[in-house]
Automatic annotation (TrEMBL):
It comes from the Bacteria. Belongs to the SIMIBI class G3E GTPase family. ArgK/MeaB subfamily. It is an enzyme of class 2 (transferase). This is LAO/AO transport system kinase. It comes from Pedobacter cryoconitis. SMART domains: AAA (SM00382).
Length: 298
């Protein structure tokens, strides 16, 4: 058995050390990661839950509360935090891999942060691959937390079986302006910081707005830092049921698209591109369309 297939076996058996090694291989596209991905025995039945919403809405706090309740019930949970700006209080801290592994004292929880700042493209392809690695271990739930700004919230919908959008009562005044992307992708909404004024009326407003959607979209109120309201959300998630086949098709297409896009762009490094443009653009006959022709064939 070569070392990669033994890593895959170790992951299946529950080794977090093997898991961390494989995630690092995949995250950095190191030698052998392609073959490793092809060798994965991916359990598509493990639900992937995307948590997104504006900065500071309490996503990580909510994730902590979910982990507390699930791990109490004996569930195994993996979390991928994309660009975390605040720590998880269970012990893992942003991007600090060594401290993350100190998290072993909670054997049912694996948390990994992924830094995407400065990387050129490929974000969602990496996350897709890393989630599939986690799906080849025996977790009960996989959570992916991303900040809902820019494109990331749209991308999370192409990755997660269930997308949870976390908002706060203060968003009430601007509800008309909440990015329509966020409003469209949530399968379930959470009004967190429900200890603050306006939570009830905001939740009602939100529910009304969501009536326009084809399916019923529930709205839960939580006080995540006190663990209040999380149970109802988890109950809903547990009963969210089998994926609809058209949703599964949608997810496979989205993922295939991202992976192919990433593969086709793998040789393009923006800094090198900049250098090449810099060398060419001052010439009197510079034409961008002729310039990019060189990139059309490979
Ligand atoms: N009052 C109140 N504060 C909360 C609640 N939930 C979280 N917080 C606080 O809100 C702040 C932000 O919480 P985080 O969980 O870090 O928010 P986040 O959405 O993960 O933030 P980013 O990852 O930076 O986008 C922290 O100080 C939390 O303690 C809540 O229900 N009520
Ligand atoms: Mg966070």
């Amino acid at each position: 058995m070569n070392s990669h297939s033994s890593l895959i076996v170790e992951i299946k058996k529950g080794s977090f050390i093997a898991l961390a090694r494989v995630l690092t291989l995949v995250e950095n596209s190191l030698d052998g990661s392609d073959d490793l991905l092809k060798g994965l025995k991916i359990n598509q039945r493990i639900p992937v839950i995307g948590i997104t919403g504006p900065p500071g809405a309490g996503k990580s706090t909510l994730v902590n509360s979910m982990i507390d309740q699930w791990s109490e019930a004996g569930k195994k949970i993996a979390v991928i935090a994309v660009d975390p700006t605040s720590p998880f209080n269970l012990g893992s801290l942003l991007g600090d891999r060594i401290r993350m592994s100190a998290h072993f004292n909670k054997p049912n929880v694996y948390i990994r942060s992924v830094a995407t700042r400065g990387s050129v493209g490929g974000l969602s392809a990496k996350i897709i691959e890393m989630v599939d690695v986690l799906r080849s271990a025996d977790f009960d739930y996989i959570i992916v937390e991303t900040v809902g700004v820019g494109q990331s919230e749209i991308e999370i919908a192409g990755l997660a079986d269930i997308t949870v959008v976390v908002l706060v009562p203060e968003a009430g005044d601007e509800i008309q302006h909440i990015k329509s992307g966020l409003m469209e992708i949530g399968n379930v909404f959470v009004v967190n910081k429900a200890d603050r004024d306006g939570a009830v009326s905001f939740a009602n407003k939100l529910t009304k707005m969501l009536h326009q959607r084809k399916n019923v979209v529930p709205v839960f109120k939580t006080i995540a830092d006190k663990g209040i309201g999380t149970q109802d959300l988890l109950h809903w998630i547990r009963n969210a049921g089998e994926e609809e086949s058209d949703l599964r098709l949608f997810l496979y297409v989205e993922k295939a698209f991202k992976l192919i896009q990433n593969y086709r762009m793998r040789d393009i490094v923006k800094s090198e591109l900049q250098q090449k443009v810099a060398e060419a653009y001052d010439k009197p006959d510079f034409n961008l369309y002729k310039f990019i022709n060189a990139y059309k064939e490979n």
